[in-house]
Amino acid sequence: MPWPSRKRDKGAVADKKEPDAKIAKTEEETPDKEEEEKSTKPPAGSSKSGWKNWKKTKESDSGGEESKITYCHWLLKSEPESRLEKGVDVKFSIDDLKAQPNQTTFWDGVRNYQARNFLRAMKLGQQAFFYHSNCKEPGIVGIVKIVKEAYPDHTQFDQKDPHYDSSSRKENPKWSMVDVQFVRMTKRFIPLSEIKAHHLAHKADGGPLKNMMLFTRQRLSIQPLTQEEFDFVLSLEEKKPH
Hints:
The structure is a single chain. By secondary structure, the chain is α+β, with helices and mostly antiparallel strands. It has a domain at 71-237: Roll (ph1033 like fold), CATH 3.10.590. It is 19% helix and 25% strand. The chain contains six helices and ten strands. The chain has helices at residues 51-54, 94-98, 113-121, 192-205, 213-216, 227-235; strands at 39-40, 67-68, 71-78, 84-85, 88-89, 104-107, 127-132, 139-152, 176-191, 222-226. The strands form three sheets. It has a six-stranded mixed beta sheet with strand order 6-9-8-7-3-10. Strands 1-2 form a two-stranded antiparallel ribbon. A two-stranded antiparallel ribbon has the order 4-5. It is globular and about 50 Å long. The protein starts with 38 loop residues before the first strand and ends in a 7-residue tail after the last helix.
């Protein structure tokens, strides 16, 4: 392939525009298991961020019972600016994806167990935000879709690749990847700072971004989104930035 491994979790850092981000453990220290899914509570109280005006209140058909979070969309982080890792440039922007044959490529180089498990949970046709990370102004630039479900990441066996893993065996590969295809650019760049402002407001009033993993697990380069989170963030492209 013309592009080296470029989408990775190992050694990921918090975005440069997030100096006040809570310092999380390095991804190498993440346990090899999924975190337990937390129940979501129905929105309560008044909304300062106005999200209830964006989405009609649903009638409860569960008798007040809480349901587990269901993830059906994703956020994929990749670095749009050059950075050498073991002598290899890991840069890969959305323009690089658009330049690939059929605007499709494999999403390789993930070396974090939780992120890998998220990759393995992806289903054909699901959509994801393409997020530019570790750059001057991080944020969402486009939408991609999953066109091939998880299969072994060949870079784990390539000794010349910066993400080579000598402990992985071909008969039982540790790491997986999926294929993604460009769908479209977002109508405007949606910066991290704008998403964070909504997240903080929703934490106070019970809005859809209150538990968004972009702020609770900043270092993960593969992050799940609920339908509610995806729809709200997508709605921001129709609004003028503040």
